[in-house]
Write a structure and sequence with these properties.
The complex is a heterodimer of chains A (489) and B (507). Chain A is of the alpha/beta class and 489 residues long. Chain A is built from 17 helices and eleven strands. Chain B is elongated, with a radius of gyration of 31 Å. The chains are: A alpha/beta (489), B mainly alpha (507).
Chain lengths: 489, 507
């Protein structure tokens, strides 16, 4: 049977770089792997000895293997390993064989279990493996690391040192001096706090490690950058969809003739608020899943920041934090009102000489002024039932919503932007709850918008507010809104 | 108020051991300065006794236990005393009841079938001899047991086949917390075994001999009573095709210890005439001639060896208890404090340094061997400042040194400690911010072998670097040392910084 042509992606699998992340115990190796492999399943703990096996974490995007990271346990007995290898030195040109021989002879020796695990990936024949040696730049350099670095030199693989500063102290200088003697490339990289562009920068740095890796690593960085943009667009679509649902959402109840509407009104408003909160929750989950952080719990740092994530959408504090300022509200109200008035003008064939738009702008601006800092009230109205239904039930239909408050969509958008920022900026090395550290100086900066952005968004919000939920006009508006939001994320 | 009465050094019991352990446990919770003040006062009192002062360590410790007040420890000791008495009485009662019951069963005679001598020998001679042999084997130290031909190999096979080994295989797939908990439990149990293992063994053997002695006593007594007050008839019967001659040789062998007297030795004719078969009539005439043989067999192979074994176990328990008393972690610190009435060898060195009480509380002596692991202190001056004690030479280990250099250092430390005598210990200075690694643990194991058991080793994780800059503020750094070193199961190893007080075996 003739050989079938191979999928180019399979060929990429053969040549995709593999990086074994090695080092002393508890220096952040797993954190580096989690961040660069964007994999939250990597076991990370502040205690040493969490990783006891060499585990591979392939970085694939749409089936294409970009690179593989190997998380390894820390060195536990490096001096004895080096001692053995020195006693069995086959010569400088064959020292990597001493590493291989060491592994073969000590495979079942519990004293060298970690070393066998971590050196294993380095001696795989014909595999493009590089070494990423991780140290903690927040503790002083010590000569006990020398044996480890010497062993890695014997392994004969291209290697890079990463200074991962876990604590606040800075001993980077002495570390760099020591590492420069053993590694051709030394970089600083904080696995927990490094922003995404630093990840890409590091990936491109891996390309310098070995001839032929520059292309694949540059390609990997490009693919990840594209993927990142796509995630942002997906999140924007999720937020825009949520806003559209919220702005058109109503709750209704049919009342029989003579039924008092007052007791039902509050229940209906409460139900509507509940559904709005649910929409927000669902959107957040969607964003978190988009960035591979599904199932996050949220936790605020102090009382001041209680409204940032877990606070209620309808609390006054949330509206102060995320709502527009008075000036912008007037602008937004005016833009929305003008858009609404414009519809009237259009419907009379401009015979009104744009009076509708003018009046709408004035009324909208006034409403914007009025609504500054106020939590939205949910409008409730009743309507007589029509036709057969009226005959059968008699009575009215009580309708609650949609919310017309000018500030409401901006509050929702502000919260969504803030949440997105936290999720998108969160490295996979960070595990546990999603923490919010609120700074007093953040007030008013949580949802920054220019005047132009405010006006554009207001118009879109106003148009969406006039649509029925099942209307065909909704989707194009959502697409437009998503484009605008994507630019803001 | 004065504590419990001082135990007599020659008669140290399990209760004293418990009282001491409880006392030292409570001392762990108290500020070291308080302990130093208390024991220095007692040391002065001891010095005042002059010629009447106890001389050896056991006697001094016993005297200290009588003087150092600890109501809670005394209450614990009283509870243990009560529990031990109850257990002893219970075992004796159980032995008596079972012995009498078994004897009534074996010597049951209703005129239909005679008492089977084979059954009597089986229960009161061979079973007794067999269980006694097992007890003797159990009493042998593991090293001696391995020397017994065949047993070493059996031990090895049992060890390899033990399902307990699987726990360590499974542990590799467990979450880290469970792995650590398992290693810690094994270590703790190992530490306990090293101090109290022989005591536990001899206590169990003494109880088992107490039970067996009561069993044999009751059986012999019941037998005598049956002989005196009923008319027993004996015969022998077995499914095995044993000839009369063979059974006679067996009874002759059993009666060998008293055969010189010519009394109670069954002759071939009696053996021939006494054989009976189930369902066939038998002649009970003269078959009562067996009872002196049976009684002597019960006494010589049952009661007497059990009595000897009981006395042996009792004496051995006393010896093991006295040894364990001195090996109890913390005792060396007490003795060290008692040796120094009123004088302080330590000065407070301020922040981060040893407090006035911490050094004597560590129990490592005035001039311990101080090992600097991976240049944690960097210089003798820094070690002196941190520990607050004179450091003549700082012994370098770990770091960039080779394992061979470390081995040579261990030999040197072993000699140094041996030359210094009982009062000397070892301090290992390490960096608190670096996690304890397997090579450090292996070094500590080798150190223990080099200095011998009971010599206190103080692992002191320093929070500052060699220049005195604070590097570690995270309490987890010290905890990780305590947790990992606990897995060593070394009861005489202590882990704490100059300002803390935690032992790996505590809590």
């Amino acid at each position: 049977m003739p050989d079938e042509p191979r999928d180019p992606r399979d060929r990429a699998d053969d040549t995709a770089p593999t990086l074994a992340v090695v080092g002393h115990p508890n220096k952040g190796k797993s954190s580096i792997v989690a961040t660069l492999a964007a994999d939250g399943s990597v076991a990370i703990a502040p205690r040493p000895g969490t990783t006891i096996r060499a585990d591979r974490f392939p970085m694939r995007v749409e089936g294409e293997l970009l690179y593989t990271l190997v998380d390894t346990p820390g060195f536990e007995n490096a001096r004895r390993v080096l001692d053995w290898m020195r006693r069995n030195d086959p010569g400088v040109d064959r020292r990597h064989e001493a590493v291989r021989a060491f592994i073969q002879q000590h495979r079942d020796d519990p004293a060298f279990r970690n070393e066998v695990e971590l050196l294993g990936p380095l001696v795989e024949r014909d595999a493009p493996v590089g070494v990423l040696y991780v140290v903690d730049g927040s503790i002083p350099y010590s000569d006990e690391y020398e044996a480890e670095m010497e062993i890695l030199r014997w392994a004969g693989r291209p290697r890079m040192a990463l200074i991962n500063k876990i604590g606040s102290a800075d001993y980077t200088g002495p570390w760099r001096t020591a590492l420069d003697q053993y590694f051709s490339i030394v970089r600083s990289f904080n696995a927990v706090a490094a922003p995404f562009d630093k990840h890409l920068e590091l990936l491109r740095g891996f390309g310098e490690l070995r001839e032929g890796w520059a292309g694949p690593m540059r390609h990997a960085a490009e693919v990840l950058e594209t993927q990142r943009r796509e995630k942002r667009r997906t999140s924007a679509r999720q937020i825009a969809g949520m806003l559209a649902d919220m702005l058109t959402l109503t709750e209704s109840k049919t009342l029989s003739q003579g039924d008092d509407a007052a007791p039902h009104k509050e229940a209906l408003q409460s139900k509507l608020r509940g559904r709005l909160r649910q929409l927000e929750r669902r959107c957040r989950q969607g964003v978190e899943e988009t960035y591979g952080h599904g199932g996050l719990e949220r936790e605020e740092g102090d009382v001041e920041s209680q409204e940032l994530l877990t606070g209620d959408l309808f609390s006054e504090h949330a509206w102060v934090l995320f709502g527009l300022r008075k000036k912008h509200l007037v602008l937004a109200g005016a833009a929305g009102g003008a858009a609404t008035g414009g519809v009237i003008d259009a419907s009379v064939g401009a015979a009104s000489f744009m009076a509708g738009a003018l009046v709408g702008a004035v009324v909208g601006g006034g409403l914007g002024w009025y609504s500054a800092g106020r939590v939205a009230k949910i409008p409730t109205r009743s309507r007589w039932l029509k036709g057969a239904l009226r005959g059968a039930v008699g009575g009215k239909k009580l309708i609650c919503g949609p919310i017309r408050n000018v500030n409401f969509p901006f509050v929702v958008l502000g919260r969504a932007r803030y949440h997105h920022g936290l999720v998108a900026g969160r490295n996979h090395a960070v595990q546990g709850v999603l923490k919010v550290a609120y700074d007093e100086s953040d007030t008013g900066k949580l949802n920054p918008l220019s005047g132009e952005e405010t006006r554009t968004l207001s118009r879109l919000f106003a148009k969406l507010g006039r649509c029925r939920p099942d209307s065909e006009q909704v989707q194009p508006l959502v697409d437009q809104l998503a484009d605008r939001i994507a630019a803001l994320l | 108020m004065v504590g419990m009465p001082a135990p007599r050094p020659s008669r140290v019991t399990l209760v004293d051991l418990v009282a001491l352990a409880a006392r030292l446990n409570h001392d762990e919770q108290r500020p070291s300065g308080e302990l130093v003040a208390r024991d220095r006062a007692l040391a002065a009192e001891l010095a005042a006794l002059k010629a009447d002062a106890p001389v050896d360590d056991t006697a001094r410790l016993a005297w200290w236990m009588g003087r150092a007040e600890d109501v809670q420890a005394d209450e614990s000791a009283d509870q243990v005393r009560g529990a031990l008495s109850l257990a002893g009485v219970g075992l004796v009662a159980l032995g008596l009841v079972l012995g009498a019951g078994v004897a009534l069963g074996v010597f049951y005679y209703d005129g239909q079938q005679p008492v089977n001598v084979v059954a009597a020998l089986g229960v009161f001679v061979f079973l007794q001899a067999g269980t006694l042999l097992l007890a003797c084997l159990a009493a042998l130290p593991a090293r001696s047991l391995a020397q017994v031909p065949g047993l070493g190999a059996v031990q090895d096979v049992l060890r390899r086949a033990s399902p307990g080994r699987l726990a360590f295989v499974f542990a590799r797939f467990m979450p880290q917390e469970l792995r650590e908990a398992l290693a810690s439990a094994v270590g703790r149990s190992g530490a306990h075994r090293r101090v109290y293992g022989r005591v536990q063994l001899w206590a169990v053997l003494r109880w088992s001999q107490l039970f067996a002695f009561a069993f044999n006593l009751a059986a012999a007594a019941v037998f005598v009573a049956l002989v005196l007050f009923t008319d027993l008839a004996f015969g022998w019967s077995t499914t095995l095709s044993i000839e009369h001659g063979a059974f006679h040789r067996l009874t002759s062998a059993v009666s060998l210890p008293w055969s010189a007297t010519g009394y109670a030795v069954p002759g071939l004719e009696l053996v021939e005439r006494s054989r009976y078969y189930r369902g066939q009539p038998f002649d009970p005439v003269e078959r009562g001639a067996w009872w002196p043989f049976v009684l002597l067999a019960m006494l010589v192979y049952g009661l007497l060896p059990r009595g000897v074994a009981l006395v042996w176990a009792h004496l051995a328990l006393g010896r093991a208890t006295r040894r364990a008393l001195l090996a109890t972690p913390g005792v060396s610190a007490v003795l060290h404090r008692l040796d120094r009435p009123g004088a302080s060898t330590v000065e407070s060195v301020g922040e981060g340094g040893a407090t006035a009480g911490q050094w004597p509380a560590s129990g490592v002596g005035d001039r311990p061997a101080v090992i600097d692991w991976s240049r944690a202190a960097g210089s003798a001056g820094r070690a002196r400042a941190v520990l607050g004690v004179e450091v003549d030479t700082l012994l370098p280990a770990g770091g960039a040194r080779t394992p061979g250099e470390d081995a040579a250092l261990l030999e040197q430390v072993g000699r140094q400690v041996a030359d210094a005598g009982n009062a000397s210990g070892v301090v290992l200075l390490v960096k608190r911010w670096e996690p304890p690694m397997l090579e450090t643990l292996e070094f500590l194991k080798a150190l223990r072998l080099a200095v011998g058991e009971r010599v206190p080793i103080w692992v002191c994780p320093l929070a500052e670097d060699a220049e005195g800059r604070r590097v570690s503020d995270d309490p987890e750094h010290l905890s990780q040392w305590v947790r990992r070193l606990r897995t060593l199961g070394d009861p005489w190893l202590r882990v704490d910084g100059p300002e803390e007080g935690v032992e790996p075996d505590a809590g």
